[in-house]
Amino acid sequence: MKSLSIIGLGLMGGSLAMAVRRAGAAVEIRGFARRSETRRTALDMGIVDSAAADAAEAVSGADVVVFCLPVLAIPEVAAACRKSFKSGALVTDVGSTKSFVTSGMRKLLEGTGAVFVGSHPIAGSEAAGLDAARADLYDGAVAVVTPCGGAAASGADESAVRRICSLWEAVGSRVRVMSPEAHDRLLARTSHMPHLVAALLVDLAFGDEAEGTRDACGTGFRDATRMAAGSEGVWHDIVKTNADALVSELDAFIAAAADLRGGIASGRFEDVKAFLAKCRAIRAGLYRSGTGKSASAEGGADG
CA-CA distance, 112 to 65, in Å (whole number)? Predict the structure, then answer.
């Protein structure tokens, strides 16, 4: 890879540029951002070699193109770049839902000679924008790579998948390969639904704010609702493009909550205690083993 184009210099794109720089790769990094302030900042920081106001200009001739935009914006911006992709270019993204992006990009790139392989680095924070970017964002994070044909890609696809895996490994990530559909089902449970639950907790506490509510919100409430601070624009796209999986997970959550309620209402407190102990042990083991790095940050918007 001699040239890398990053479309969107927000949290995810800016961090990717920083991480590639840190890795010492001899690669030209091009960036795209709509705002002139973001382009100037990226250039002043030295994380990109050029910063364009036009996405098509940024991707022209690039060996690898990474779309770091909200999910619904990716096909739209990619369509404007269609004639500018280099034949043989490898195209990926950091979107938090994969079936929607994968199907759209596969059709869009037909006849261009460019190849799309989806990816989703499960890393970040509720913060957004280039100011929040950092070189170590992807260190130790899982990056899910989703071939168009699922995990069993072949031929040229296998080579493209290996190259995308190498990109994320170079910036410190641990790669997992799965189908777009499997990714969306899994992330609905581990990331997308938790965000909605965090939002519900905030709404329940402050929907009809009683006197003293704010003073009663300690670190437990802060930690449990942190994800609710994420961009509603980004999360709108995630919910809309993963609605079926989210409905299934919310149904399961409602059923589990009803079961817990039943145990409390009927006085089965030993059962409740056993449930809490089981969950405490699972969570402690998850983070103790180092597999629980934050999965809260979903692809940041273009700066």
Answer: 14
| Structural domains of the chain, with CATH | 3-179 (3.40.50.720), 182-288 (1.10.3660.10)
Of all residues in the chain, what percent carry a pLDDT higher than 90? 83
**So what's the pLDDT on residue 150?**
45
User: Do the beta carbons of residue 86 and residue 61 sit within 8 Å?
Assistant: yes
Q: Specify the pTM.
A: 0.87
Q: How many CB atoms lie within 10 A of CB 272?
A: 13
pLDDT tens string 249-284: 999 999 999 999 999 999 999 999 999 999 999 999
What sign does the CA torsion over 29, 34, 40, 44 have?
Answer: negative
Tens of pLDDT along 51-63?
999 999 999 999 9
Band the pLDDT of 149: cuts 50, 70, 90: low
* pLDDT for position 151: 43
